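Lab notebook: predicted structure, single chain.

Context: the supervisor wants predicted structures on file for every construct in the current expression panel, including those that have not yet been purified. This is the next one on the list. No modifications to the sequence; it matches the entry in the shared construct table.
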Amino acid sequence: MDRAGEASPARFLVSARRRIRPLSRKFAYLSLGGILVLFILFWAAARHHGPVAPAPGGPTVAAPNVGISDRDLARIDERQQAKDSLVDYNLLNHRLTRLMDAPNMIGMAVGVVENGEIRFLKGYGETVAGSGDKVTPNTLFRWASVSKGVAADMVALLAHDGKLSLVEPVGRYAPSLKLPAGNENRATVADLLSHRLGLFSHANDNKLEEGQDPHMLRSMLAQLNPICPPGTCWAYQNVAYDASSEIVEKATGKTYEQAVRERIFGPLGMRSASLNRNSLVTAPSWARPYTGGKHGKPVEVSDAYYRIPGAGGVNSSIKDLAIWMEAQMGLAPNVIPPDVLREVQTGRVATAGELGRMRKFRERVRTAQYGLGWRVYDYAGHRVIAHRGGVKGYRSLIMFDPALKSGVVALWNGSSSQAGGLEFEVMDMLYRLPPRDWLGLDEKPVPEAAEEGNSAVPDAGG
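Prediction complete. Output recorded below exactly as produced.
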């Protein structure tokens, strides 16, 4: 029993609870209201600035000016009717349909960007000849040496971040790269990315295709005879060029694929893009490689150039390759800043041999240079950026005018070079030039030799 004049502890607690409860309830309401306000502000900011992860059916908001939603892709014909369109998309489709009648064309995917907008994405033919499995804008192919632009952009981004310098010796960042006479201490990172290491063309590619380790092959380059001092002549490389992936790994502490996915592919919304064989062959739709014609069988997917991912390891759909081209046009400055694009797309060395290789197109291509992972052409008085790729059973191309923010990409699962004329037919439309039969559809077909590997084809790697 309580003593007179004194409140028991139990009564005190009950009284206190009665006094505090209204205050606590009011505080809770205010707290919930504050949280709700913060949530609304955060949601509004997210809508404005965008999430980092890809948004379903479209690009990330981190790169809001690239890509195409699934809804817009289904109605892409409407984009082709835009008043500012210079490309005759009906004619283009007709030409490509005719091209697929060629005996050595199995499957192909094509994309066109006009005035910064994806206006054409279409698949032709089959993933496997005679299968009935149609190529679509989501079918995966290999980029082959069009992959070199990814490596160059990635290294230039790290230079932009202050993680490395393009003018310092490449040996400082790529321990496995050894050049004749210790030239890894003279050649710069920029020399590596512009194929000016003083080596003969495609050095040690044959050994890579035999299955030898690329790190060992880069060390063995020191045993070769140089053809010139570093930085003074140009000769295309694959094994040496992949020192770029080693540079990225050393600077980031991550695998090359992880770094590229986090820094480039993810923010751009390139959801199908990858850098390994397994991601290709396990995809819901992927084009099998062919070195012969429609009546032949697909060949095995070689892993040789996946082992040098900086030089030739990217897979993706044509949709993602078109997004990649948009980013190179400067439409994703939050992902790839303008100064990085200037660095990689500035011609650094004349490539006279390229003019010889493209002699069929000399009416259009007046000069040819190489930047960092990219080719730079004077196309009938216009500056265009381009690259081609070729690896066993696959071909690729990209060509665009960064000023017009217009260009073309294509991927196909075969060894035919005939489809390469496509980029000239599209660019001619964009520049309103007289049409030419660059695809050779009206010419008598000439049999093409089977492709034996990336280093064996005339335009190996682009």
